Amino acid sequence: MIKKLAGSIREYKKHSLLAPLFVSLEVLMEVLIPLVMAKLIDQGIERINPDGTQGDIGALLRYGGLLCLLAVISLAMGALSGRSAAIASAGFARNLRHDLYYKVQDYSFSNIDKFSTSSLVTRLTTDVSHVQNAYQMIIRVAVRSPIMLISAMVAAFGLNRRLSLIFLAVIPVLGVGLYLITTNAHPIFVRAFKTYDKLNRVVQENLRGIRVVKSFVREEHEKDKFTDVSTQIFDNFSLAQKIVALNGPLMQSCIYICMLLIAWFGSHMIVSGTMSTGELNSLITYTMQILMSLMMLSMIFVMITISRASAERIVEVLDEEIDITDGEHAITEVPDGSISFRDVGFSYAKNSDRLCLSDIDLEIRSGETIGIIGSTGSSKSTLVQLIPRLYDVTEGELRVGGIDVRDYDIQALRDAVSMVLQKNVLFSGTIKENLRWGNADATDEEMQHACEVAQADGFIRTFSEGYDTYIEQGGSNVSGGQKQRLCIARALLKKPKILILDDSTSAVDTATDALIRKAMSEQFPETTKLIIAQRIASVQDSDRIIVMDNGKVAAFGTHEELLKDSDIYREAYYSQKKGGSDDE
Predict the structure, then answer these.
(1) Could you tell me the pTM of the whole model?
(2) What is the mean pLDDT of residues 212-219?
(3) How far apart are CA 573 and CA 302, in angstroms?
(4) Which residue in 177, 198, 437, 523 has the fewest CB atoms around it within 10 Å?
């Protein structure tokens, strides 16, 4: 895990090394200060001169000046270490977000299915922030504390070995206490971060479906859902923080016990003449440095306990093995739009015993218009998603242009296949910016032509800004039918060899649907068109029609052939025709 995370440091290695270096110099100055202070007290203040007077002005000035110099150097080193640590941690977090985001972009659909959207958002934001804070503490405080602890211990033993043994008695107590705190708190933090994912999911679902929530007057239900999840987070973090808070009393108890014991035994040594006042003062200072170092170490353990859960979740995303990749000698050119399914089977679970598509044998010629119908859950969408390798077949072979899709460069294959998904998505930006997702270099004339074919040009021109009209996030300021037509135009701009419309005209009236199909047939005769629809009228003019039933091809032929030979198609056709007549 550490090695994987360290790979995101990259260009910030310099600052990651400078921060500990500056911290080490800062600690050195702080350790020297008590020694100089002891000299200043013993030789500059309490020194008895031959003439019976007390104090030495020269020693005071000499050691006082040295103290000021050490303090200035310590301050400068502290400032430089803080700056370097801040740059290193912020840069590390930036690279980590970059690596996570780019990794997710390379995921296949099956990879994405393993993580919820809310979980990925939490990992990219909250979890990265926790790891960033922990990294900043590690390269600064985690370096400072051990060096300070060791240096102060060495200096303290150099001053008075007997009194310094007190520290050795306290350290095991602290070690056991910190171990118990961290081992009990970590599982609770893990549980809390998983609940964060649930909270994000509840909020996202509510905001996306706010119109449905208000239509069904479910505001109170949504409030209750949010309150329940929020309360779970509160309970988990409260419990974890209560355990972690035990660190404070434990540290304070050890500090005060050490201070009392050193003051008690030290005062007796001064009276007996075995220790000077300056040495006791320095020893007390070292006591504070040692115990404060232990306190900072305990804070680091707490931070690492919190960030460990976040780090594990981040590495889980980074370690996810992408199951759809380019071959060693990937083909970068798709010859034509012919499609061949040869004994294809598919399972989302990659289990041959749980196939949702099976025994698929189809031969589709380049330039054909193929309709696909079937009941809900008959795996129509799954069938077409195999063509651009959104998923890989579990069994058999799928060929495009006479070549196995697994032998293509993924980008080249998907550039040759335009797909308008069942859930149409528009992004915040102008209509032109959304259309150029299909072709970044498309001219205004090409965009207009694609919109004319998709029957979108008419309503676009009714907007005051025309093609520069701003589309809100998710296309919330256009109707469902308008959104579908814009998505079809965007797909047509790619000038694909294969065009897949996955129930993409369901929100369009039948007359407009017919105009779209007619225009596509005339303007893109060489493009293979696969049209999934619920309405028979949307596919009956296709060259051939696939009838899906329970993940299998129940029938495949022309409209007339299916009316004659397919009970499923015939029943659907007459049922819809009767319904249409009743409506009239």
Answers:
(1) 0.70
(2) 81
(3) 67
(4) 523
